[in-house]
């Protein structure tokens, strides 16, 4: 591909270069994928107010997320198995984020371990925790994140069990992939990916293998993770984890105003309004649709971030203008990584930054922190989750 100008360009390249099993893992929603589609479709329903004859020199996209300076309020979301999309994927994405000046979040289910990413980067990153039944393992994981200098714990609340994604079951998703005939036939066309994987030792879940009891080979690992997510996670346990961590806490996966108020009560530093990119409760509303009711319930006393469905800088602008202080991107950076490694993640960030900056200017704004509802034309009823829009 000659010139890359959009996230969609990276998506097309990623599709050609990544093994089918991992492409499907990324590009799926749960069940009918209605929520996955709505996440994108609802952003498109919001329109922008064009303003003219406004001085648009000296623009700034700089802001803060949980008190940390960011070049633009766009963090890389935790994405499991990033190191299967491209060899050493988590390290490459973390380096790209660091150079760009945006936060990187490492997933519990990463291929590169916390220690490995810390050794290969020079700024603190955020660590995302899935709460497992094995309390001792969780305690040690939190300790490892603290020792590695992670500056925030992102506690994911919307995955106490796995939303069913049909393609993953049909493909027999595993890390590393099992070499069945269809997988071998697919890998034969993905030589770039294969060469990278042959050259790295990082092919298993680095935070887990060697750290959790009874986990040796990959097969038992898949069984272990499927069984290990804690279905009994509740607000009492969240409070204990907050105290155990003792640092900045972001609660991710909140989609309802009542849950947001609970998060505020336990003193979260920020919440992420998210439906896990449409991968968990299919049939739930998009994040952008639920954002207004959540902001209203919180009354400006808790920082609110948003993810799910962001594919452009214009989407970022819409989320900010609707009232979020920050955003996360998941698939948008994975497309870049799978297409071109670290340079692809940088490209994804550049594309989003340019779109955000230019759109901001054409809306008559010079400072990303000054964006607001006055920049948008929002369909009637959009703020009301029960209205048909
Ligand atoms: C392939 C994939 C793996 C993911 N793994 C995790 C994970 O390990 N932990 C987590 O909290 N969220 C995970 N998520 C959800 C993302 O953090 C984020 O909420 C979502 O991708 C946002 O939607 P978007 O992809 O439309 O930007 C994953 C998402 C994808 C696409």
Summarize the structure.
The chain has 16 helices and twelve strands.
What does this structure look like?
With 389 residues, the protein is α/β, with parallel strands linked by helices. 44% of the residues lie in helices and 11% in strands. It is globular, with a radius of gyration of 20 Å. The two termini are 38 Å apart. The site of flavin mononucleotide has 24 residues, from helix 2 and helix 16. Flavin mononucleotide binds next to helix 2 and helix 16.
Kindly report the oligomeric state of this protein: single chain
The H-and-E topology, N to C, reads as HHHEEEEHHEHEHEHHHHHEHEHEHEHE
- CA-to-CA gap between the ends? 38 Å
- Total of helices: 16
- What is the approximate shape? globular
How would the blueprint of this fold be written?
Elements: H1 7-17, H2 20-26, H3 34-45, E1 47-48, E2 63-65, E3 68-70, E4 74-76, H4 82-85, H5 89-100, E5 105-106, H6 114-120, E6 126-129, H7 135-147, E7 152-156, H8 166-171, H9 181-187, H10 191-198, H11 218-228, H12 235-245, E8 249-254, H13 257-265, E9 270-273, H14 287-298, E10 303-306, H15 313-321, E11 326-329, H16 331-362, E12 376-377
Helix pairs in contact: 1-16, 5-16, 13-14, 15-16
Residues 25-26, 39, 77-80, 107, 109, 128, 156, 252, 274, 276-277, 279, 307-310, 329-332 line the site of flavin mononucleotide.
Summary tags:
binds flavin mononucleotide, 16 helices, eight-stranded parallel sheet, 389 residues, single chain, two-stranded antiparallel ribbon, alpha/beta
């Amino acid at each position: 591909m000659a010139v890359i100008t959009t996230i969609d360009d990276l998506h097309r390249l990623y599709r050609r270069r990544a093994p089918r099993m991992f492409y499907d893992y990324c590009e799926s929603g749960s069940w009918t994928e209605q929520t996955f589609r709505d996440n994108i479709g609802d952003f498109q329903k919001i329109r922008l107010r064009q303003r003219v004859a406004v001085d648009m020199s000296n623009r700034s996209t700089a802001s803060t997320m949980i008190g940390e300076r960011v070049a633009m309020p766009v963090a890389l979301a935790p994405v499991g198995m990033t190191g299967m999309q491209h060899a050493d994927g988590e390290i490459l994405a973390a380096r790209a984020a660091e150079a760009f000046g945006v936060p990187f979040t490492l997933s519990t289910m990463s291929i590169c371990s916390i220690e490995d990413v810390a050794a290969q980067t020079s700024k603190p990153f955020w660590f995302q925790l899935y709460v497992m039944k094995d309390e001792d393992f969780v305690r040690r994981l939190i300790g490892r994140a603290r020792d590695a200098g992670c500056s925030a714990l992102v506690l994911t609340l919307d995955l106490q069990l796995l939303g069913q994604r049909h393609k993953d079951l049909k493909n027999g998703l595993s890390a590393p992939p099992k070499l069945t005939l269809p997988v071998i036939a697919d890998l034969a066309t993905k030589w770039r990916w294969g060469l990278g994987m042959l050259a790295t030792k990082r092919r298993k879940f680095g935070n887990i293998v060697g750290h959790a009891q009874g986990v040796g080979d990959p097969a038992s690992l898949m069984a272990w993770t499927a069984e290990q997510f804690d279905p009994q996670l509740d607000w009492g346990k969240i409070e204990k984890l907050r105290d155990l961590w003792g640092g900045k806490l972001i609660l991710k996966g909140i989609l309802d105003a009542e849950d947001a108020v609970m998060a505020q009560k336990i003193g979260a530093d920020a919440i992420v309004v998210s439906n896990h990119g449409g991968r968990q409760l299919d049939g739930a509303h998009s994040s952008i649709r639920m954002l207004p009711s959540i902001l209203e319930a919180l009354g400006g006393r808790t920082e609110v971030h948003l993810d799910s469905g962001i594919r452009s800088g214009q989407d970022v602008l819409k989320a900010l203008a609707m009232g979020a202080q920050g955003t996360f991107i998941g698939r948008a950076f994975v497309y870049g990584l799978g297409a071109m490694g670290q340079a692809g993640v940088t490209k994804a960030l550049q594309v989003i930054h340019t779109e955000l900056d230019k759109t901001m200017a054409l809306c008559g704004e010079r400072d990303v922190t000054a964006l607001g509802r006055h920049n948008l034309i929002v369909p009637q009823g959009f703020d009301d989750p029960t209205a048909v829009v």
